[in-house]
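User: Show me a protein chain along with its predicted structure.
Assistant: Here is one chain, sequence first, then C-alpha cells.
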Amino acid sequence: MSTPGKLTFNGGVHPPDYKEFSSQCAIKSIPVPKQLAIMLSQHIGAICKPVVNKRDHIAAGQLIGNAEAFVSAPVHSPVNGTVKDIALQSHPVLGRAEAIIIESDEDNPPKQPCPDKFSTDFDPSRFLPEQIFDAVRKAGIVGMGGAGFPTSVKIKLNPESPINTIIINGCECEPFITCDYRIMLEWTVQILTGVSLIGRALNCGNIYIAVEDNKPDAVAAFEQAIRKMPSASSMKVVAVKTKYPQGGERQLIKSIINKDVPTGGIPPMINVLVANVATAAAIAEAVLLDNPLTHRVVTVSGGGIKNPGNFYAPIGTSASHLIELAGGLNDNAVKIILGGPMMGFSIADLSTPLTKTGGAITVLTDKDIVKRKETPCIRCGRCVEACPVNLNPTRIAHAVKHNLLDAAQEYYMSACIECGCCSYICPADIELSGFIKTGKILVARQKKLMPK
C-alpha cells in the first residue's frame, strides 16, 4: 500500500523483540480473582470520584467511579462482589493512589471475549456520531496502548478542527509484548467494527491501519477481513518498517503521512487521530453491546516466567495473580516490569493492579540485565542519532543531574517521549532517559501537578 510517508522515521533502535515467548499463545480468559483493586486514576485527566461505599454489594459492569470532568473516564466493576475498602493502593505510575477494593462473589463466571458477536455486514451508519461519543464516554474507554487519554475526548466531532486522517496503531514495537498481535489475529472483525465507528463519529473516511512488517499474518488477517466487510472497504492496511518506537503516535504519523506534530502539540492540531487496535475493539463492544471497559488482554512474558501467555483479565487483577496464572517465576527472575523493558515501570509490590493501559507484565532474568558500570560520556552522539524526536538527551540529562531544571526545559525536556532509545544505545551506560524522567517529575512537583 503506497502512502505519503516513507513507512519509517528518523532515529530509533532495533532491540531484539523476544516476541517468540508468547506470540503463539492464544488469548485465555482467567478465573475471577478473589480480590480486585480498581484504581480511580487510570487515565490522563481528572481522577474519578467513587460512587460506592464500603460494604456495598455491586454488580459486574456497575459504575463505581464517576468522571466529573470532560477529560476523564469513569471506572466500572468487572465482577459481582462487595466493596471491601476504598484506600490507597500501589499505582504503577503515581506510586500510591486511591482504589476501590472489591471482594468477588464466589459464583462469578469469568467474562469471555466476544469477537463472534461482530460480523462483516456491520453498517456504522446505524449510529449517529453523538450516540458513539456517548457510548464511549459511558464505557470509560481510554487509549489502551499508551498514556490512557480518554477516547471520548479524541472522537468528539469538532467542526473547527476536523479530523481528516485516522491511523489505527497495531505496531506493538515494544519487546516481549504480544497482546495487540493476538487480538489482531483473533478479534479482527471486532477491531474493524470499532474502526468504522471511529470513522463514523468523526465523519472521516481516510483510514490507515498500521502494522509492523514483522507481523505479516496480522496484515493478511486485516486484508482478508476488509475484503469481506463493505463498511471497511476504504481502509488501507500499511506494513510499516519494524523499528522501535514505531508505535509512538508522532513516529507513526511521520511514517505514514509524512507530517510532523508540533513540539508540545497533539495530533488533532494537524487534523490526525491515532488510536490503538485494542481501543478500537473496546469501542465496538461499548457501542454494539453496551459493555464498559472492565477487562483487557495482558501479556505475561519474559525469561523469568515459566509459562508465558496472553490473558483476558479483569482490570484490577494483581500482578502476583497474573504471574501465578503464568506458572510463577523461574529461579533466575530478578526484575518485574509493568509494561515492556523499554518504557515499562519496574515494581517491587506485586499487589500492584492491572489498569486499562497495562498491556504486559515482563519478568527479566539476570542474563537480560546489563550490569556494567556507568562511565563518563564520550560525546559520541549516538543518543542524538537515536532520539526519534530530535533532542540532545545528554545535554538534558546533564542539566537535570546538576539541578538546572530551567536549562533542561530550554532543551525541550518536555518533548521527550521517554522511549528509552538514548539509554539503550549509550556506550557509556548512562541512564539518560532515567535522568530525563526524573527531571520531568521534579518540574511537575514544582508546579504541583504530581504528589511527592
